[in-house]
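Q: Please design a sequence for this.
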């Protein structure tokens, strides 16, 4: 009978570990705070229109997608720039970055995410994580994708919103 009791306790512990986000998360509390801070910093930079800061908080995949979109658009309009020039402009928050992010922010309102949404850490793996962001008027949350790159969490707009064209033009 004592063996059965121990099995029940072990089983209960395993079930709790599997279904409890706090116990199942491979991230420490400090790392969870860094994860949330990275996402929040992106939306704060968008709100303040700190274009260079926005760029520094994005994943490499998102940066490549943006540079490719701007490259295609610049060729289409006859104002072609090489990719290195485009990337350098976004790094420093230059003219192309301002035009891109002003267009993006004309439809995306960071205050809705910062002030009118509920945030929860979702699935977490070693170098990937999701933050569930549910706007108060939405039925379903957005699952913001983050990736650990160069030992810090970066927000994946491309990874989150997939093959949608992010070009605001």
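A: Design:
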């Amino acid at each position: 009978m004592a063996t059965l009791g121990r099995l029940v306790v072990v089983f209960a512990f395993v079930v709790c570990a599997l279904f409890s986000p706090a116990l199942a998360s491979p991230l420490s509390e400090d790392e969870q705070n860094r994860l949330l801070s990275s996402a929040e910093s992106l939306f704060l930079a968008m709100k303040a229109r700190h274009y260079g800061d926005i760029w520094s908080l994005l994943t490499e995949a998102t940066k490549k997608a943006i540079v490719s979109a701007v490259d295609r658009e610049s060729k289409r309009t006859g104002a072609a720039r090489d990719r290195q020039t485009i990337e350098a402009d976004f790094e420093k928050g230059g003219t192309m970055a301002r035009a891109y992010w002003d267009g993006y922010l004309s439809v995306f309102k960071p205050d809705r995410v910062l002030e009118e949404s509920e945030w929860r850490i979702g699935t977490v793996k070693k170098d990937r994580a999701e933050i569930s962001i549910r706007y108060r008027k939405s039925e379903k949350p957005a699952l913001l994708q983050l990736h650990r790159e160069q030992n810090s969490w970066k927000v994946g707009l491309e990874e989150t919103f997939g093959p949608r064209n992010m070009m605001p033009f």
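Q: Thanks. Anything notable?
A: The radius of gyration is 20 Å. Residues 1-24, 165-169 have pLDDT under 50 and may be disordered.
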